Amino acid sequence: MSNQHLEHFQILPDGRIESYGKGIPYFEDTGIKGRLIVIEGPDASGRSTQISMITSRLEADGHAVLNTGLRRSELISEGILEAKRNFVLGKRTLSLFYAADFADQLENKIIPALKSGYIVLADRYIYTLMARDALRSIDTKWSHNLYGFAMKPHLVFYLDVDPNELVHRVFQKNSSLDYYESGADLGLSDNMLESFLIYQGMLAKQFRRMQKKYSLISINANKSILEVNKDLQQKVDYFLKSN
After folding, report:
1. pLDDT-based confidence at 66, cuts 50/70/90?
2. What is the rounded CA–CA span in Å between residue 211 and residue 228?
3. pTM here?
4. What is the rounded CA–CA span in Å between residue 105 and residue 130?
C-alpha cells in the first residue's frame, strides 16, 4: 500500500504533543506513547459502526483502546443538549459550548490515555465543529483560533457519502431528520428533506476545503460496511506498523 496519503502524519521523535495553535500550557512537554485516530463524517455515514469494528480488531491485536467523540464531556454534554432542544443560545455561544466540551475531554480523557499508550479513536473531532460554524457564517479564522489548543491527530479519516445515499441511511437509522443535521436553522428550504440534501452537500464542500490544510484522508463510504472497513483497517494497520 502506498504511503502517499500518510506522509503528513509523522510522529515527533520524542512523542511530544503538537497543537494547531497555542496548546494547553502544562501539556507542552508531555510525552505520549499512544496514537490519536479520528473518523469524521456526517450523521449516518457509518462512523460509529466503523469505530466499533476497528476497536475490536485493535483490541484483538493487543492494543488498549479508548473511544471518545463530540458531546461526551460529563460536565458539558447535557448542557449542550438542553441548549439545542430549547434554541436558547446564539451560534457563536454554542460554538464556545462545544469547545468547552472538547477541551474537557482533551484534558481529562484523550491526553491521559495517550500518555498511557492507548490508541484513542475519536468519533468526530474539531473539523465537524469548524465546518458547521463556517456554514453558519462564523469566520473560519475565528474557529481555527478557538480550537488552536487542539492536539493534531496522527490520522484523520473523512467518510464521504453522497447526500442522496445519506438520506436513506438516516431514515433507516432514525426514521426522521434531525433539525440541525438538516440545516433547518439556516432557512435553506421549507421542505426538510430538501434542506437536508442542500445542507449535507454544503457540509461536504467544507470538508473538501479543509482536506489539504488538516490532512484529512477521504474514504469512499458509499460502499458496504465491510468494504469501507477493509479500506480503513488497511490504512490504520499500515500506519501503526510504520510508526
Report:
1. very high
2. 19
3. 0.89
4. 17
Q: Read off the pLDDT of residues 152-194 as tens digits, 9 standing for 90 and up.
A: 999 999 999 999 999 999 998 888 898 889 999 999 999 999 9
Three cell numbers, residue 107: 484534558
CA pair distance 208, 127, nearest whole angstrom: 11
**Alpha carbon distance 99, 70 (integer Å):** 10
Adjacency order of strands within the sheet including 155-160: 65-69, 119-123, 35-40, 155-160, 217-220
DSSP 12: P
- Side-chain half-sphere of 170: how many Cα atoms within 13 Å? 20
**Every domain of the chain and the residues it spans:** 32-160+216-242
Give the Cα separation of 153 and 131 in Å (integer): 17
Nearest to 151 by CA among 14, 7, 8, 38: 38
Contact 135/202 with Cβ under 8 angstroms? yes
Rounded to 5 degrees, what angle do the CA atoms 84, 176, 46 make? 85
CATH H-level superfamily of 32-160+216-242: P-loop containing nucleotide triphosphate hydrolases (3.40.50.300)
Give the C-alpha separation, 91 to 175, whole Å: 27
